[in-house]
Amino acid sequence: MKRALVTGGSGSLGAAICRKLAADGYHVYVHGHRGLHNAEAIAAGIVTAGGSAQAIAFDVANAEQTHAALQIVLAQGAIQVLVNNAGIHDDAVLPGMTTQQWHSVIDVSLNGFFNVTQPLLLPMIGKRWGRIINLSSVAAITGNRGQTNYAAAKAGLHGATKSLALEVASRGITVNAVAPGIIESAMTENVFDKDAIKRLVPVGRAGKPEEVAELVAYLASDKAGYISGQIISINGAMI
Known about the structure:
Blueprint: E1 3-6, H1 12-23, E2 27-32, H2 36-48, E3 52-57, H3 63-74, E4 81-84, H4 99-127, E5 130-135, H5 139-142, H6 148-168, E6 173-180, H7 186-189, H8 194-200, H9 209-219, E7 231-234
Helix pairs in contact: 1-2, 1-9, 3-4, 4-6
């Protein structure tokens, strides 16, 4: 059974990705940090539904903590599918943004990508098959007022995605980024009302986490072996 790790698996989008990968036959590590209780509940739900999963907790922004947690995982075998989904918002226009706001968002989304991905690469290369999928955002493509830190972090993932794809292409490993637009979640409900969504999204609705999960699962499959180094938008024709 191939093994998958989904960082930020305790959130609504991460949970949908975990459930879909488990349904496709992967053993899924559902990562949480402050949301460990949610990660445990998601993993339990997957097992109840007949899948294979377990929760794991560490702070992706803490390199030593991440490395220690991943060594325990790697002792059981290589991770073959990695979904870098962990990310946070801490919004403010740049003239009013604090140093902490800048660094905290960069640390989770971009430094977290390095902290998680780098230790998993050699074992994945040894399998000569792997899938790395980085969750980005439409904000990295278009920019967004009040999200200079978030857009910068996610845009950095685009460059990392393309560069890493070149480095591991000959090893049977693909690396892609998925850039969602407005996706249904507790957070977006508090930011976008129905009228705003209709105005911003040509298809007239927010996307569903399950729709993003389907795209991620396809990129994680054997069928997507010739897709690598790509930034794939899923945003209802916003751009």
